[in-house]
Write a structure and sequence with these properties.
The chain is of the alpha/beta class and 339 residues long. It folds into 2 domains: 216 residues, Spore Coat Polysaccharide Biosynthesis Protein SpsA, Chain A, CATH 3.90.550; 117 residues, no CATH class. 47% of the residues lie in helices and 19% in strands. The chain is built from 14 helices and 10 strands. Strands 1, 2, 3, 4, 5, 6, 7, 8, 9 and 10 form a 10-stranded mixed β-sheet that branches.
Length: 339
């Protein structure tokens, strides 16, 4: 059994060696690491060159900057492993990861996807700490059982690809591919996976370490087109739920549309956004008028159903239709988060 580890790289010179070394440290040794350098302009290319020359099971693709989705897809297209594992270059894997995946898949060879927990590195001023997110029970599920258990499965980073393992045959048979969308392509990919998945293993363990401390990551960067990306994700999820014919999941659809709006609010509050306060209010008003699904989500979701304090405050203000105050408070919250 062979694993293909897929890693897109763009300007992560300070983290890249740690990530690659975590693959080299795996106790299970039948793997290939395929790195796509997505047009890096820092020292990442030199670091990749060093490892590629030293280790025969590290393969390199170079491309002009096209985004991590295209970078991952090019790696998948040449992968030779039985299973796909995704690793971001600023994160790392525990050394027992592949060995534990092997044990599960050797016992249950028909599994399409393994869902795992993950470990998150968070920073608080000058210190950092680890938080582990796990599923409470190990489960082997067919499609109907998976859909029945979906309210619980979605609790542990459903959108992410890095805490999962995918059968390459399953991916190929269903022609599942990454899109060219620059941000959120993980979610689009997983929602396509869930459309076809028939056999799932829910694992209670966590082997992936997700480092949220890098300031210039794609998630934290300002992008004028981010609203379009987030809306695409919500629409994709709505199609998935419609495909399942599960009307009782409408609350999750509403939450996806709320997440789209919340991420839009995070994006427009970014310090690099040149748009004036009045134009932000006008833009927000247009979104609420042009997208009924967003208005439905605001009216349908309870404040207790959203997680962070920022979400609760902004949702409350939007429920009162206080758009100007929403934008002002949103900016204040952004400044507080940056300190």
């Amino acid at each position: 059994m062979k694993f293909s580890i897929i890693m897109p790289v763009y300007n992560v010179q300070d983290y890249l060696a740690r990530s690659i070394q975590s693959v080299l440290d795996q106790s299970y040794t039948n793997w290939e690491l395929i790195i796509t350098d997505d047009g890096s302009t820092d020292n990442s290319a030199s670091i990749i060159d060093f490892y590629e020359k030293e280790y025969v099971n590290i393969r390199l693709i170079r491309q002009q900057n096209s985004g991590s989705g295209i970078a991952r897809q090019r790696a998948i297209d040449i992968a030779t492993g039985d299973y796909l594992v995704f690793l971001d270059p600023d994160d790392y894997m525990l050394s027992s990861s592949l060995e534990n995946y092997y044990k599960i898949l050797n016992k249950y060879p028909l599994i399409d996807v393994i869902f795992n927990g993950y470990i998150q590195i968070v920073s608080d001023k000058n210190a950092s700490s680890l938080i582990t997110f796990n599923y409470p029970h190990k489960l082997r599920l067919n499609k109907e059982q998976f859909i029945d258990n979906f309210p619980n499965v979605r609790q542990v980073s459903l959108r992410s690809i890095w805490n999962k393992v995918y059968s390459r045959r399953f991916i190929q048979n269903n022609n599942i591919k990454f899109t060219s969308q620059r941000v959120g392509q993980d979610a689009l990919y997983n929602y396509e996976v869930l459309k076809y998945v028939k056999n799932v293993y829910i694992n209670t363990e966590a082997y992936y370490v997700y480092d949220t401390t890098r300031e210039n990551s794609a998630v934290k960067s300002f992008r004028p087109e981010k609203w379009k990306y987030e809306l695409n994700i919500a629409k994709k999820f709505e199609k998935l739920v419609n495909n399942w014919n599960r009307s009782e999941f409408s609350e999750f659809v509403n939450l996806e549309y709320w997440y789209a709006l919340f991420h839009y609010l995070l994006n427009i509050s970014h310090k690099e956004n040149p748009v004036s306060l009045n134009n932000k209010v006008r833009e927000l008003s247009c979104i609420l008028n042009d997208y009924p699904s967003i208005k439905v989500s605001i009216s349908s979701i309870s404040i207790k159903d959203v997680h962070s304090g920022s979400e609760k405050v902004l949702l409350f203000l939007l429920k009162q239709n206080m758009l100007y105050l929403t934008v002002i408070i949103n900016s204040i919250l952004a400044k507080l988060r940056s300190h």
